Amino acid sequence: MNPNMLKKLQKMQKDIMIAQKELEASTFYGFAGGIVTVEFTGDKKMKRLTIEKGALEQVDDLGLLEDTIVAAVNDCMNKIDAETQSIMSQFSQGGLNGIF
Fold first, then answer.
1. Which of 6, 13, 11 has its CA nearest to residue 88?
2. For residue range 21-37, what is the model confidence (pLDDT) as tens digits?
């Protein structure tokens, strides 16, 4: 492998690591039913779960509230996955083509 290619690969590896750390430090929110909000970091660690005041009066059934929480978490996970794919695709689409 020529030294120029090796330098490009090392730079791309460094850029991927930086992008991953920035993603992990980002905050994502998921919402459902107008009563549940969840907050996660980009590495999928939950930071906060908020249930709006009066939600228990609005929801007749505990199962419905549980389903709403699950929907909010899934919403947030989908946002994290989409952002991860968007960020990492820049390395797979243009990154290796510029090296080889």
1. 13
2. 999 999 999 999 999 99
When computed from its CA atoms, the radius of gyration of the chain, rounded to whole angstroms, is: 20
Number of residues that this document lists for the chain: 100
Distance in angstroms (rounded) separating the CA atoms of residues 88 and 61? 41
- In sequence order, the β-bridge partners of residue 51 are 36
pTM reported for the whole predicted model: 0.81
Q: At what angle do helices 3-25 and 62-90 cross, to 10 degrees?
A: 160
Q: Scanning the structure block, which residue is given the tokens 């290796």?
A: 96
